[in-house]
Write a structure and sequence with these properties.
The protein is α+β, with helices and mostly antiparallel strands. Helices cover 45% and strands 15% of the residues. Helix 1 packs antiparallel against helix 3, helix 8 packs across helix 11 and helix 10 crosses helix 11.
Length: 360
């Protein structure tokens, strides 16, 4: 039996459509659904098997049906299959529904009297699809008029403002997960040990040549003291690394070499070097810079302990120089309502060394 679409096209096409539908509707992350979910692979295999089985059954039925036909029926079937699509009855019927055109033999009945140098005009009706589309536009216009001009639904300006507000929210949500969209205004200090380790690797690869591996300064300034040439804090350090230092004598801009997320990592690591006091550090350069939000520092001493208080906002990394005979386990630190409280046992001072406490 003749079929419009051959089996070697029909089976792969239907299988591909089902496969694409599964991949579209099943959320499988960055992996194809048939790999992440084994049941999808099993379903596709069974579906393909059923497709092939159906085609085999239909082919067998066609052969049986053809075998029981009379010679006259076989001849008529051959003539039907030999006809093109445009000659088939269903195609002619479909064409009449969409165009309502008259056969050439009947054109004399709709011929108009106009005659322009032998060119005559037929009085054909408009195609039904065009007429129905025209009626649809009239109906749409009536609904639009009632909704927007009589009942006063939202106008174009309100729609624009609503969509822009939604777009801004979507952009901000996207920025939270897109690390490389961070800039000097949105950057935040990273204090996680893993992030600082990555920042250290970037620093040692790109920055140690001028600032030394310990940040003590060489050609570049000392990064471990509280003096800054272009301002301290995560935002200023991020901006300095991105755009470069002072014109003519500062470091180059790294925005063409490092990604914003990498600059955030190395800037956070640089800030974590504060107060480490490496040996033979370079002399201070610049001005003392205090973190924005640091408002008040208090220190009380009693018989057995020293209580140190600071008021901050956000995250911080603080270093304290303490006597070597102080056990870090005896140091108590608390950050609540913007106040950092550090309690240290009061002991006879011996050699001073740094103890780092990270508070968030």
């Amino acid at each position: 039996m003749k079929k419009i679409i051959p089996v070697y096209v029909r089976v792969p096409l239907l299988f591909a459509l089902v496969f694409m539908a599964l991949e579209y509707f099943i959320d499988s992350g960055d992996k194809p659904a048939f790999i992440k979910y084994p049941m999808v692979s099993i379903f596709l295999f069974v579906f393909l098997f059923i497709q092939i089985a159906i085609e085999i059954v239909i082919s067998a039925m066609d052969k049986i049906t053809y075998a029981i036909l009379t010679d006259e029926q076989k001849k008529k079937l051959a003539e039907t299959e030999a006809m093109g699509i445009q000659e088939s009855e269903w195609y002619k019927k479909l064409k009449r529904i969409f165009t309502k055109s008259r056969p050439i033999e009947e054109e004399g009945e709709i011929m108009l009297d106009h005659n322009y140098d032998g060119i005559k005009e037929l009085d054909n009706v408009l195609p039904p699809w065009w007429v129905y589309l025209f009626y649809g536009t009239i109906l749409f216009a009536v609904i639009y008029l009632v909704r927007f001009h009589i009942y006063g639904d939202y106008n174009q300006k309100e729609e624009f403002e609503t969509e822009m507000a939604e777009a801004r929210i979507a952009v901000e949500e996207y920025k939270k997960t897109a690390k490389d969209l961070v800039d000097a205004e949105t950057v935040t200090l990273l204090t996680d040990a893993g992030d600082l380790a990555q920042g250290k690797t970037i620093f040692e690869t790109n920055c140690a040549a001028c600032h030394r591996a310990d940040g003590g300064g060489g050609i570049g300034p000392n990064l471990t003291d509280e003096f800054w040439i272009l301002g301290g804090g995560i935002k200023n350090v991020f901006h300095t690394i991105t755009e470069g230092g002072r014109d003519g004598k500062g470091m180059v801009a790294w925005k063409g070499t490092l990604k914003p997320s990498e600059i955030q990592l190395v800037a956070s690591y640089v800030i974590s070097l504060q107060g480490t006091n490496p040996a033979d550090a370079k002399a201070p350069d610049g001005e003392i810079w205090k973190e924005e939000g640091a408002e008040k520092t208090e220190e009380n001493t009693d018989q057995n302990k020293v209580i140190h208080k600071e008021r901050y906002e956000g995250k911080m990394v603080r270093s304290f120089s303490l006597s070597e005979n102080v056990n870090p386990k005896d140091i108590y630190a608390e950050f609540e309502d913007g106040v950092l409280v550090v309690v240290v046992p009061k002991l006879e001072t011996q050699q001073v060394e740094d103890h780092r406490i990270t508070i968030s």
